[in-house]
Design a protein that fits this description.
mainly alpha, Helix Hairpins, transmembrane helix, MrpF/PhaF-like, transmembrane, membrane
């Protein structure tokens, strides 16, 4: 019985983490802190898609997780370039 509820507990933990990270995204003191929170939300969303893949057995959710990972990586690189240029201009 506990084994049947385990994915539900994992999903609840991931959603709770997503909620807390969203709060950090809103009240973060700086741009870098907010972007770290956005990266964390991306990681949690990938975890949710992986868990959904395990529970449902449908491999299409892995494609969604891969798309999220690539988008998160490109966004991180873009922000790093933006912050470096901003710092260089000052």
């Amino acid at each position: 019985m506990l084994v049947d509820l385990f994915p539900s507990y994992l999903l609840l933990g991931l959603v709770l983490g997503l909620l807390l990270t969203g709060i950090r995204l809103v009240i973060g003191p700086g741009v870098a802190d907010r972007f770290v929170a956005l990266d964390m939300m991306t990681v949690l969303a990938i975890g949710i898609t992986a868990l959904t893949t395990l529970v449902t057995g449908r491999k299409e959710f892995l494609d969604i997780g891969l798309g999220l990972a690539v988008t998160g990586f490109i966004a991180t690189v873009a922000l790093a370039v933006f912050l470096e240029r901003k710092e260089r201009d000052q």
